[in-house]
Amino acid sequence: MSDASHSAKNSLELSSVYDPGFVEGKWYRFWEENGFFKAEVEEDKKSFSIVMPPPNVTGSLHLGHAMDSTIQDILTRFRRMQGYNTLWLPGTDHAGIATQAKVEEQLAKEGLSRHELGRDKFLERVWAWKEQYGGRITQQLRRLGASCDWSRERFTMDEGCSKAVREVFVDLYNKGLIYRGNYIVNWCPRCHTTISDIEVEHVDREGQLSHLRYPVKDSDEALVVATTRPETMLGDTAVAVHPEDERYRHLIGKTVILPLVHREIPVIADVYVDREFGTGAVKITPAHDPNDFEIGLRHKLPEVKVLDKEARMNENAGKYQGLDRYEARKRILADLEAEGALVKVEKHEHAVGECYRCSTVIEPMVSKQWFVKMEPLAKPAMEVVRDGSLEFVPERFARIYLGWLENIRDWCISRQLWWGHRIPVWYCEQCGAEICAKEDPLTCPTCGSSKLEQDPDVLDTWFSSALWPFSTLGWPERTPELKHFYPTTVLVTGRDIIFFWVARMIFTALEFQHEVPFKQVMIHGLVLDAQGRKMSKSLGNGVDPIEVIQKYGADTLRFMLVTGNTPGNDLRFHPERLEATRNFANKIWNASRFVLMNLADYAEGPRGELTLADRWILSRYQATAEDVSKALERYDLGEAARLLYEFIWSEFCDWYIEVSKIRLYDRENTLARHTSQSVLLEVLEGTMRLLHPFMPFLTEEIWQHLPHDGESIMLQSWPQVNGYWDAVAEKEMALHMEIIKAVRNIRAEMNVAPGKKAEIIVVTKAEQETVRAGEDMIKQLAGGSKIEIVGALEQKPAQAASAVLPGVEIFVPLKGLLDLEKEIARLEKEIAQTLKEQERLAGKLNNPGFVGKAPAEVVEKERAKLENVTQRKDSLETRLAELRK
RNA sequence: GGGUUUGUAGCUCAGCUGGUUAGAGUACCGCGUUGACAUCGCGGGGGUCGGAGGUUCGAGUCCUCUCAAACCCA
User: Fold this and answer.
1) What is the helix (H) or strand (E) element at residue A264, kind and residue range?
2) Are strands A391-393 and A518-524 parallel, antiparallel or unpaired?
3) What is the residue-averaged pLDDT of chain A?
4) How many Å from the CA of A113 to C1' of B69?
5) Which of A171, A542, A628, A824 is the most buried (most CB within 10 A)?
6) CA–CA gap between residue A837 and residue A849 (Å, rounded)
7) Which nucleotide is at minimal CA–C1' distance from A565?
8) Straight-line distance from CA A115 to C1' B6, in Å?
9) What is the three-class DSSP state of A234?
10) A492, A50 in Cβ contact below 8 A?
11) Which nucleotides of B are covered by protein (CB under 7 A)?
């Protein structure tokens, strides 16, 4: 090899401790600047595409993002190396409420409000804010090593996405799937906007159940209702009882008198009423309770609003007007008591709806909002999952998804915010016409007036993210990207946004592309703190991934986030696990250093005969490549990572490298040395490729030091699984390992100083040839001075410790060092173990049921085991008897 | 109230379609520092798999019930 890049670089540059900070930035720049992440449409190649769940533009990276992005990056790098035309498309979300709140905060510091600024000026400020701070999270993703195509980065409010939003809205509107109506919605008195049903979090709270007496008109009787919200009684327009409730049957159709305000309201019958709850009679406030609203519709009850947008009592509340809802509750209860209408108050635990953003108790309120009619959209969305054209991984999440869609309610999409996609509907001031159009209209198509007013509301942020898989590929244009990369291959996201996002992407995609947005959805769990709690700002238990990266390196964080965990389950974050993973990175680093140090004089050339260890590690390497590939294909990243960890540490480092030292240090036999170098190199280089998706930086750094062709490891092909499996080598190697472990155990138990070599006698008939082939290895790894392999021993060494393996007996003569008592105890323990095992196996084989019904193969295996155990036990007993003489 | 998940060594977690003496990391104990790595090596102790019952020749691995924890929905 004459080309400089083909030979190993001077390994002396490699420090004995891996320093991620030193290499990470360098390689990321190298990859990005050379355009290695860029995906051009290559029609002849199979595509693999992922759209990144767009993080909030206001956000900074948290461990959840880190995990989500790591998984996507692993899949992307894996498929890229496999030769797919790979696109990982990044972007950010405009995050209506969050972003608006951020900028309002900023304004508040200047003593300004958005209303003082005005809509247009405010929006300018938001855009300016976005330009300045919005890129933060994308920079952080780079620190993590994300190999997404930044040249295609998108934003949910960019021109293309906005165009897609318009297109979808107008189309749904024209199909009658978007409508405007007066319905009960969730109002956040703090964010001053509606939020959708799923943005409400139900929290169990200790509250009070007040029993209120409503006198029946023209009667001595009274109906007692139980309520957790006495203040809304001012807006009651009925009392409902169950139609079959004997207690109240005679009152149905009668009228009761609302205390305090003395308004007359009817007693109605509705099956919704739970007879068991409270008194079995319910006050109905259609304007401020979702269930009451439904009842109100069924019974055509009037809606009396008593709360305003600040959740204060309004003009319909008479003397309570202006009071906050909780203050009003106290006052009203006091007044009811004074009037004798308060029967009792009892403690009561119930679920209270809170705003997902600010945790303010939401106020159900009737108001005029825009909705998406869900039923017709939900049906096909369920169908594609049921028929398997869209798959959830793990599949249990499909049930959650389906369960939600089965009971779907219409989606409230209007938000009383300024930052977002404004609803493309205009109202004609002249004739009252409602105009929904893709292009801003200048005049009213009905009356020609130019006095048009656009609806002030914006759309729910999720409306635009629902279009993400195709809007980012250029839709509504028919772009080559859309044709080639859509439907995307897999969506990777947390299980917390199945409803918010996944479901909505699926039904919009089906409606507009007539195809699923992705063939598979891989759902992962959440990253929890060490105690298993969600990480949150209020708890202050969040961990900053960037700090972790600075301390341990991105590769360590990545590897740690995908190990020790099964698909779909939550992951607890334990700092100690970072150390363990960092040690693993360091181990790889040092193993590579070792190889490089011994490769200085390496030149490609034909190998000599492969040793047992060579054949063994090559076989194990192949098996690992195959298993890792399979695990990655079924999205079991934790298993893939575990396999690599085990292979590298336990097999490659602990055994193969140690064995290789024999030939490496033997300068006489250059062919053997060369062969060893060659195998070390092959396995290390291939293993780096297998590991690259998990630890891109470390593997790139090592790979660049190894003899190589090509610019970057990330562009190399994935190791080919060639089916090479050397069963013989694996079996023989296993025997050698057993022998070595047995000798090591003897040495340790007998306190033989580690530096002191000892003679090893191996007595075996059946395995003589095998053991002979590994003589050097045993000597090297078990600290043998010399090794004697015989078929039988005339006279057993007196002062020797021994061990028995199937078909093999081992003696370690320890003149003067043997502690007879210790050795006897050791043998007795061994015998006890084998005896137990022997009994277990014999019992099994004596069971006619087992012998008769179990597969012959299994029975045969057990028989062989019994034979082995019996033989071992006999040998051990013989030995013990000898010692006791 | 419905649903999902989890309950395996002191701790954190693996264990695929039931069949080796139930594994790893970490912690713990003993020994070890010239030669890849003390962010290391070698050796060792430690669990009968939440509980009960069942299916089966055979169950951590399937079924039923039960206890506990977390989450989602209502």
Assistant:
1) strand A264-269
2) parallel
3) 88
4) 46
5) A628
6) 20
7) B13
8) 50
9) helix
10) yes
11) 3-6, 12-15, 19-21, 24-26, 30-32, 36-44, 56-58, 69-74
Diameter of chain A measured on Cα atoms: 119
Residue listed under structure tokens 């406030």: A285
CA dihedral A507, A510, A513, A519 (to 10 degrees): 100
- Burial-class residue A881 by CB neighbours within 10 Å (0-12, 13-18, 19+): exposed
**One-letter amino acid for residue A873 of the chain:** K
CA of A531 to C1' of B67 (A): 22
Distance CA(A91)–CA(A138), nearest Å, equals: 8
Q: How many CB atoms lie within 10 A of CB A447?
A: 13
The spacing between the Cα labelled CA in A764 and the C1' in B11, in angstroms, equals: 44
Q: A569-602, pLDDT tens digit by residue?
A: 888 888 888 999 999 999 999 999 999 999 988 8
Nearest CA to A825 among A884, A878, A875, A873? A884
- Upper half-sphere CA count for residue A730 (Cβ side, 13 Å): 11
d(CA A832, C1' B21) / Å: 12
- How many angstroms is C1' of B14 away from CA of A560? 14
**Residues constituting chain A:** 885
- CA of A849: nucleotide with nearest C1': B57
For chain A, list the domains and their CATH numbers. 4-10+575-709 (1.10.730.10), 188-364 (3.90.740.10), 819-885 (1.10.287.380)
Residue A641 CA and nucleotide B31 C1' are separated, in Å, by 32
Listing from the earlier edge strand, what are the strands of the sheet with A363-372? Answer: A193-195, A178-188, A363-372, A411-412
Residue A435 near residue A425 (C-beta atoms within 8 A): yes
Tokens of A157: 């409010």
Backbone angles phi, psi at A325, to 5 degrees: -60, -35
Helices A136-144, A545-552: crossing angle, 10 deg rounding:
30
Q: Which nucleotide is nearest to A743 (CA to C1')?
A: B43
Q: What angle do CA A415, A418, A419 make, to 5 degrees?
A: 95
| pLDDT at position A4 | 36
- Residue A557's Cα: distance from chain center in Å? 14
The position carrying tokens 């409270």 is A278
The pLDDT tens digits for A687-740 are 999 999 999 999 999 999 999 999 999 999 999 877 778 888 998 999 999 999
Instruction: Among all protein residues, pick the one whose CA is nearest to the C1' atom of B5.
Output: A569
Q: Which nucleotide is nearest to A530 (CA to C1')?
A: B12
Q: How far apart are the first and last CA of chain A?
A: 66
For A178-226, what is each residue's pLDDT tens digit?
A: 999 888 888 888 888 888 877 888 888 778 888 888 888 888 888 888 8
Q: How far is the CA of A864 from the C1' of B56 (A)?
A: 24
Q: pLDDT tens digits, residue range A37-96?
A: 999 999 899 999 999 999 988 888 889 899 999 999 999 999 999 999 999 999 999 988
Q: CA A536 – C1' B7 distance (Å)?
A: 25
Q: Which residue is nearest to nucleotide B31 (CA to C1')?
A: A748
- Cα(A436)–Cα(A438) distance, integer angstroms: 7
Which tokens sit at A51?
A: 């759209």
Residue A850 three-state SS: helix
Q: Which residue is nearest to nucleotide B40 (CA to C1')?
A: A587
Encode burial over A827-866: b for 16+ CB neighbours within 10 A, e otherwise: beebbeebeebbeebeebeeeeeeeeeeeeeebeebeebb
Name the protein residue, with chain letter, whose CA is nearest the C1' of B41: A654
Element at A85 (helix H, strand E): strand A85-89
Please state, in angstroms and rounded to a whole number, the distance separating the CA atoms of residues A437 and A447. Answer: 16
Give pLDDT, residue A1: 32
Cα angle A76, A501, A352; round to 5: 135
Q: Where does A435-493 have alpha helices with state H?
A: 461-465, 468-471, 480-485
Q: What is the CA radius of gyration of chain A?
A: 37
A2: pLDDT strictly greater than 70: no
CA angle A795, A798, A799 (to 5 degrees): 145
